[in-house]
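Onboarding guide, step 5: your first structure request.
Type a short instruction followed by the sequence, for example:

Predict the 3D structure of this protein.
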Amino acid sequence: MIDNKITAESFIDSKELRERVMNRFDVLEKVKKLFLIPEIECMTIKQIADYYEVNIDVIKKQYQRNQDEFDSDGSDIKHLSDFKNLKGTLCPFRKMAQHSGFLDITLSDNTVISIPNRGTRCFPKRAILRMGMLLRDSQVAKEVRNQLLSTFERSNQEQRTFSINEEENLVSNIVRAALKGDMSTTVTSLSEYIGYKNRYITEIEKHNAELAKKNEEMTSENKELTLENHALAGDILKWTDRASANRLVKALAGMCFQGNFKYAFNTIYKELMYKYGISVSSRQKRDNNKKPKIAYIKDNEWKFLFKSAAAICNQNHISVKKLFDDAKIDISDLDFSE
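The system replies with structure tokens like these:
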């Protein structure tokens, strides 16, 4: 990347710039004390939200928007057993308490971490640092970026000094060889200088290509956010295909419920009942169980089924677009109301 006019906010827009400082975990501790879960050396989404002093939904959204980056950093789902297996090891847990629906873990510093029975997504240091480079409005994240900028500028200045010295040496070699009348060395030195300049031109071309790719990613991200917002609002109208609904729930089961298709459907039916007063079970019973429950969803209620599926995705930190992709549903064919 060409390092002209780099600012602390440049880390938000440039993936390449983020990658260049991904080993600088030390800045996290400089800005604020970092409380990692011992032994597995990671933080939950709730812990990250507390560290960066933002709402937990902000962290969830940022993960959804940059899922590939965070997953490549090692972010993954930790199950209840992953935490229970730490008990009795060198991990300094003060106590564990199992409740209905969640496990409370008290660390040696009295920090309490609640782990849902279904597990929770955790982030290692690398992913925590990346989060700081992406959160635009967090004051803590801004300070992390300021620290990274200082680190980057020092490193960049050293590299720039090296590059200037390297170019000067190459030019000097050409001049010295020419003054001596040594044509063979002159040609060799000139070839080395041309190679050096070509590498610089290649770097510019690479930078321009990355900028073009970034613009495409931003466009794609805006489309995904639009889809998710409409999905959660129940505004997707073209949703009357039962086969598509089955594929959707099957994909949801694979993402959130370890492939349990029946459990995924029952979870959606509960959402329909408690949030929208749509009781497909009652309708099925009145009809003496002649048809499967999905057959009792009315045409004007499909949007609520979709909205429920989208909400479950959101709760499990999975993007709606990924749900569509796994269900093999063409997003471009969906119709959004204004």
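Each response can be followed by summary notes, for example: Residues 224 and 321 are 6 Å apart (CA to CA).
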